[in-house]
Amino acid sequence: MKKDFEDIILTYKGEKSDLIPILQDIQSKYGYLPEEMMKKVSQFTGISPSEVYGVATFYSQFRFKPTGRKHILVCKGTACHVSGANQIIEGIERHLGIKEGEITFDMEYSLESVGCLGCCALAPCAMVNQDIKSNLTLKDVKSLFSKRKKDN
Questions:
Q1: What is the mean pLDDT of residues 104-121?
Q2: Is the pTM of this model over 0.85?
Q3: Closest C-alpha to 112, from 69, 60, 137, 75
């Protein structure tokens, strides 16, 4: 991680204004903000660890746990909610054997709900990494993860 951190901070001066871009670069590299990296950011910028953590927790873009290689975001906005988003989440949880906010043992899948994906006309919808899955049904959930069942 030390080498990675050095590579990330090459273009920064260690100023307070560098904080968010550095955190974004770290998350881009790891998929989340490892605690060790947060400490290094604090040392590099001279910002207290509690302030670094405070900034990172303020912005919803930052994560503190790793995500799976296939990160599933299920929309729970109004259109998706009334179209069955909760049933979709429950179906994914059953199929993958995890709860919302968790990651599968093999680090392949993680599941999270979000307020809105901006695809209201496609409700209910989810995003797997950057791929939108629209007009989802429980049958779709089974087909999305049918390969996983065969692998187990």
A1: 93
A2: no
A3: 75
